[in-house]
Design brief:
276 residues, alpha/beta, 2-enoyl-CoA Hydratase, Chain A, domain 1, Lyase 2-enoyl-coa Hydratase, Chain  A, domain 2, 2 domains, six-stranded mixed beta sheet, four-stranded mixed beta sheet, 49% helix, binds acetoacetyl-coenzyme A
Length: 276
């Protein structure tokens, strides 16, 4: 048996059982990963941060998964932040390590080769909003309340919020959100570019799933290359970013998917991508 076949066998046996996560994969390969800490509005303690990281890494490797929807369990909260009770006893070194631990988990989401979409209902505050900001796309229910309230606790955002919000919505919006600590509506978050779409609560899953299916229907190698080029491009200057883009664009011409996509266009039919 080849190593690839052995790996496939192992992956088929994978059962997704993390104590504070709900994970299921539907027939279209859309994985729903929900943080589930009902007693704490899904707040992120160190334990659940580690579980999310493991889950993302396993879903990224699972051939049965084509896109990931990240959410919170229940209607009231996406995630209400880092776990304040757990942080209360931290000393500065604990807090610094926790910040790095959270940042690394969020970087793993951002670097995931499959699209990760945050589906936001209710509160997405502090570390909860930071979790959503690390996802590639965000769909919010009209019930969502988003914000970075850390300054009200005498803290600052510690899971990348000071950096990602500035990059996503610009420094003026980031300063207003971080310095006031206010909660903002889904509509306002959409107006300033923090979320991609806002929908009524009963349409939240179908809209988010539809978006996931649309991305999953495109050439998987191209989707992965686009995600990576955008992510890495945000960390370098324009000319270096364009160089990354040209390299990735060139690499696409070595894929079977590119040949199939172009051929299908010329033959006026739908492409059948292999992810190769
Ligand atoms: N950490 C730990 N527990 C939390 C929590 C959090 N972030 N958010 C809510 N909870 C708990 C509450 O303590 C409460 O527990 P009990 O029932 O045992 O008292 C339970 O969840 C329900 O919450 P509330 O009773 O407060 O619900 P509410 O409807 O009155 O208020 C809320 C909802 C406005 C979201 C309020 O819970 C709240 O303000 N939560 C904290 C939000 C926050 O400040 N987040 C930032 C955390 S710091 C951070 O995230 C740092 C970072 O960047 C890494």
């Amino acid at each position: 048996m080849s190593t690839a076949e052995e790996l496939d066998d192992v992956m088929e046996e994978v059962e997704y059982t993390w104590p504070d996560l709900e994970v299921d994969v539907d027939e279209d390969g859309i994985a729903r990963l929900a943080v589930s800490r009902p007693d704490a509005l899904n707040a992120l303690n160190a334990e659940v941060v580690g579980q999310i990281r493991e889950a993302i890494e396993e879903l990224a490797m699972d051939d049965a998964v084509s896109a990931i929807v990240l959410t919170g369990s229940g209607d009231k909260a996406f995630v209400a932040g880092a776990d304040i009770a757990e942080m209360a006893d931290y000393d500065p070194l604990d807090a610094r390590a926790f910040s790095h631990f959270g940042q690394d988990m969020l970087s793993a989401i951002e670097a995931c080769p499959k699209v990760v979409i945050a589906m936001i209902q209710g509160y997405a505050l502090g570390g909860g909003l930071e979790l959503a900001l690390a996802c590639h796309l965000r769909v919010a229910s009209t019930t969502a309340k988003l914000g970075l309230p850390e300054v009200g606790l005498g803290l600052i955002p510690g899971f990348g919020g000071t950096q990602r919000l500035s990059r996503i919505a610009g420094p003026a919006v980031a300063r207003e959100w971080i310095l006031t600590g206010e909660q903002f509506s889904a509509e306002e978050a959409w107006r300033v570019g923090v979320v991609n779409r806002v929908v009524e609560p009963d349409a939240l899953w179908s809209e988010t799933r539809g978006l996931a299916i649309k991305v999953a229907s495109r050439g998987p190698v191209a989707v992965q290359a686009a995600l990576e080029t955008i992510r890495r491009g945000l960390e370098v200057g324009q000319s270096e970013g364009e160089s990354l883009e040209a390299d990735a664009f060139g690499m696409m011409f070595s894929t079977r998917d590119m040949k199939e996509g172009v051929q299908a266009f010329l033959e006026k039919r739908k492409p059948e991508f292999e992810g190769r």
